[in-house]
């Protein structure tokens, strides 16, 4: 078995054993180990959250009394203590609904958005960056001062400009590739700290 396949298989087996809905759960857990994203009682919104691995990790980290909301185009099977909304992040009414549910602003916005993959590199990159830009706009509407966002991004020529836009809203923006992410995949994660209200 090639190294990449072996690594995928390792996290797939681990996820089954630990009861996580996706291998991606370990990426978020590893990012949290490095950047201390979650605090007990933080309010979390997770965009592009089906099947729900990140939601499971977020809920474990913030505790049963904290609000965790998942948004996805696809249905998300119910998870104890998690509110799920089916809709697109590009729809401003979805964000209105989150603000209404929370009754204020949130501490953390996560985004693991992926478009339907065409296999054409430039197209997939452009679509993913466009989705992430919508997640950034959502973060700007949703976050409290000093809030945190984590965005998955696909590497490519449009990424630098998006990072610049992120730096207009967050005092610190770090690029990270957690161990659970395949080294040769085009994804990386931007951990954005200290949201500034404008
Ligand atoms: C890689 S998966 C997320 C996996 C998830 N983080 C987990 O741990 O289970 C990416 C998700 O982005 C969702 N997505 C794509 N476009 C979207 C949009 N416009 N609005 C909301 N979700 C979207 C897809 O439906 C898909 O479920």
Describe the model.
By secondary structure, the protein is an alpha/beta fold. It has one domain (3-195): Vaccinia Virus protein VP39 (Rossmann fold). It is built from 6 helices and 7 strands. It has a 7-stranded mixed sheet, sandwiched between helices. Strand 1, helix 3 (53-62) and strand 2 form a beta-alpha-beta unit. Helix 2 packs parallel to helix 3 (53-62). The longest helix is centred in the middle third of the chain and has 22 residues, at 121-142. The radius of gyration is 16 Å and the shape is globular. The model has no long low-confidence stretch (mean pLDDT 96). The chain binds S-adenosylmethionine. Residues 21-22, 24-25, 48-54, 71-74, 88-90, 112-115, 131 line the site of S-adenosylmethionine (SAM).
Give the structure's gist in a few sentences.
With about 200 residues, this protein is α/β, with parallel strands linked by helices. It has 6 helices and 7 strands. Bound molecules: S-adenosylmethionine.
List of distinct ligands in this structure: S-adenosylmethionine
- As for the CATH topology, it is Rossmann fold
Summing up helix and strand content along with how strands pair, one would put the structural category as alpha/beta
Cα distance spanning the termini: 51 Å
Number of domains: 1
Key words describing this protein structure:
198 residues, alpha/beta, Rossmann fold, seven-stranded mixed beta sheet, 7 strands, 24% strand, binds S-adenosylmethionine
List the helices and strands and how they pair.
Layout: H1 3-18, H2 24-35, E1 44-47, H3 53-62, E2 68-72, E3 82-86, H4 92-102, E4 106-111, H5 121-142, E5 143-154, H6 159-167, E6 170-176, E7 187-195
Parallel strand pairs: 1-2, 1-4, 2-3, 4-5
Antiparallel strand pairs: 5-7, 6-7
Bound molecules: S-adenosylmethionine (SAM).
